UniProtKB/TrEMBL annotation, chains A, B:
PANTHER family in the record: L-THREONINE DEHYDRATASE CATABOLIC TDCB, THREONINE DEHYDRATASE, MITOCHONDRIAL-RELATED
Species annotation: Saccharopolyspora cebuensis
Pfam annotation, one family: PALP
Gene3D superfamilies in UniProt: 3.40.50.1100
Domain Tryptophan synthase beta chain-like PALP: 89-390
Keywords carried by this UniProt record: Lyase, Pyridoxal phosphate
Coiled-coil residues: none
Protein name as catalogued: Threonine synthase
Enzyme Commission code: 4.2.3.1
Family in the record: Belongs to the threonine synthase family.
NCBIfam families on file: thrC (TIGR00260)
Lineage: Bacteria, Bacillati, Actinomycetota, Actinomycetes, Pseudonocardiales
Amino acid sequence: MTAAAHSPATTGKTFDLGPAAELVSKEEGHRQPLAPEFVSLEDFSPLEVAYDFGRVRREDIEAGPRSIWRYKHLLPVPSTVEQHPNTEPGCTRLVRADNLAKALGVKQIWIKDDTGNPTHSFKDRVVAVALAAAREFGFKVLACPSTGNLANAVAAAAARAGWDSVVLVPKTLERAKILMSAVYDGSLLAVDGNYDDVNRLATELAGEHEDWAFVNVNVRPYYSEGSKTLAFEVAEQLGWRKPEQIVVPIASGSQLTKVYKGFNEFAQLDLIEDSPVRIFGAQASGCSPVSSAFKGGHDVVQPVRPDTIARSLAIGAPADGPYVLDIVRKTGGAIEDVTDEEVVEGIRLLARTEGIFAETAGGVTVATAKKLLEAGKLDPDAETVLLITGDGLKTLDAVQDGIGPKATVAPSTEAVDEALGLR
Amino acid sequence: MTAAAHSPATTGKTFDLGPAAELVSKEEGHRQPLAPEFVSLEDFSPLEVAYDFGRVRREDIEAGPRSIWRYKHLLPVPSTVEQHPNTEPGCTRLVRADNLAKALGVKQIWIKDDTGNPTHSFKDRVVAVALAAAREFGFKVLACPSTGNLANAVAAAAARAGWDSVVLVPKTLERAKILMSAVYDGSLLAVDGNYDDVNRLATELAGEHEDWAFVNVNVRPYYSEGSKTLAFEVAEQLGWRKPEQIVVPIASGSQLTKVYKGFNEFAQLDLIEDSPVRIFGAQASGCSPVSSAFKGGHDVVQPVRPDTIARSLAIGAPADGPYVLDIVRKTGGAIEDVTDEEVVEGIRLLARTEGIFAETAGGVTVATAKKLLEAGKLDPDAETVLLITGDGLKTLDAVQDGIGPKATVAPSTEAVDEALGLR
């Protein structure tokens, strides 16, 4: 059975995915028509979308909707994409984080706060693109294996679009992520295994159910393009330019590769200057296969069995690991990993300084930035963007031990003053 | 001790709060200079901000930032407000809810989805305005009594601004709201009492601590104006016009009165046509003093002891109750209340149809809209806006009994197919 064996009948059909022209294999550049396929049968490497952009101007983007669809001319979606019911993700805040910058001793930090998306993580971006492509390919069910944020995004997007969903999660997932997936009333299944088991299961199911679009499996080439919008927005929000440094959390590694691709496409279209941007990767030490490979000087990523509170990053066999290593090395970045204790400290530091409550993945990013600064790998004099990709409300267990009310008091001013040390 | 006795020295000082001109008492219209005061000493009614707007054009608003500050010329804030660190709330989605409309049998519903705000409730709007006014008045500490959402918003806004915060909550508050208040590292105190006890305590403390701005007590006239931005955004997002009907949840009642005021100000400034809008109120039956007064034909609201899962609406002595009754009656609206079971059904209905996960207050709004439709009070042929003011992740306990995975399965395709009834 091949990757394409059971996808909706595509032979001879052409699909309107806007500027997307064909699929190209990442290793040897073999080209093939647009279809719901994700692996090249020529060289067995992942397939990626190639485009025929034509001219795209800043004014066209600025006149577009306040969502990722303002960038539809750079995404594999039909030009009418925003007319179909979708969650309208994107255009989240880019916050100038002077308090955090001061605390870390650096010149300038910006927080890209993707907790403002509809289901409060960056996954709404990629799912919206996957749904648009899946609709064009004729799929009927939106599906995914997930560590949680993707489950929330798929279940919500399917509900909004009036589609059925099949969402597979490890049974050990955080309560908030389970409930926020279940509430949309699709088919949520808890799987007795870790994420890598669930992911393998999804690949098998994608081959057997011809009308199921597993967003991160059989429509992955389209889905993953959604992450480019993080780079697009950062560049537009900075006043049409790249930052000098950006720190990106690594799960499968897809996001980091697409952030890089997004900046490159903007430069290629002369929307921004092609200035250098150093790309840094962040992992939790309990699941740090890419960080280990980077530090060991390897090109290949050795799979690990995850054991970290940063469950949204707990992918032991990251599909895009080798590409991440390549990009980080060629841009002059670095990859580092942090302990669970440092993750919690990272969450608290960001909350305390900027009033932004990130999930564990955000804690990983902040703590890794701190560690890279201390090691002299991040330049404190360069403008730095941190990607905060998910919400603290989804990973409350991670912080609950260290925080809470200062005191429980009787309803009297004396009791309050005493609790605050004011009398 | 009067309301103004211990506020920062204001005698003879003038404050730059943009278009705000003076304070006026709601009952008899007594006027007094802008100051951190909230009750008229002439007639003991609440003070409200009066303006000298000058000319405000649609173009001025459209050219403004993508936050509530695009409406700064209609708020009691300095013209430089966006230059101070703040959470930049507002400009949340207005979602065309065709699936929900179909499920309820009505022509057109729009969801104003305020879960997209920085701390995921509408409270970020009012707190941002309160902080701006408090800064101008010379306060040093941002404080509040809260049922949860306000606690999150105050603690986050203070952290972002570099201010200390004192946040008082009932000790029985939901875990998510406690943790999300504590993480920003201000002074969070759990009070042994219900919200009305905590509120009384805050009023006493505001009189004793001259540099504490209790956002919803001593700077309440400014704070409450922030809710006007809900009406402003709805009108702008509809293409510069009012909806025909709007359903607003009632806690203190302030939000409903300010939504009404917001539409009126837009009409007064010729930004929109002064078409009729019928305003409806939503309460939980376990705390329905305003609904009871409405149904009983009373002008006075009899306080109750709250007992409902909709804790963010659990204010037994709602300060703006009489004004709510007046507005709802004169616009031709109605007020209804729903049981806790209906609240949960409302949350699930909205999630299932539109992919939006609301907190219990949102469930109250949706369920009340359904009940008002069934009773023939909401017109199914009129365009209706529902205000969804808070996030489902904050009230997980309310939904956890009814929802969860369809099944827990082994990591095999057979197990998945069997669980889904496909073999």
